[in-house]
Design brief:
alpha/beta; 12 strands; 5-stranded mixed beta sheet; globular
Amino acid sequence: MSRLVAIDAATWWGGVALIESSDRGAALEVVAEAGLRVRDSHSAHLLSLLEALLAEAGWTRASIEAYAATHGPGSFTGIRIGLGTVRGLGLATGRPCLGVGTLDALAEAHGPDDRALVPLLDAGRGEVYGARFRNGAAAEDAWVGPPERAVDPAAPPAVVFGPGAAPYRDRILARVPRSVVRPG
């Protein structure tokens, strides 16, 4: 049995999840998760969320085999908090730590789709972080730029989603009206 703690603090919406697989190579299952939109700092909430989830799942700290955190793109401070928390837990327990791209995590959470997936995060100043995924894999490197970059008039329609999609829905659809834009 393999147990992992995953932390995301790359945006104002942060969370902690306990993930388990029954055998090496088996599918992963989310055992417990909690998310929180913070107004102050993730540092004030991550460890208490983790403790509550461990109690809910009946896991001991010693049963955790690895830690993971999103490594961006996203809020510089939030990413440092998430990575620092995971690194501290890993050093204290001697367990390995993993980094996961924020956009990769969003694409994976969306689930399979025959269309291109383009998760967006708001980068501020009218720009977004984005990347294009096809068949579960990144089809291009992550980028920062105008939200219209998420769609290409010469390509088949894409599904554009994530926290950076909703604020720019009209701009994206003005460029490629047949695109699908989903909030959150």
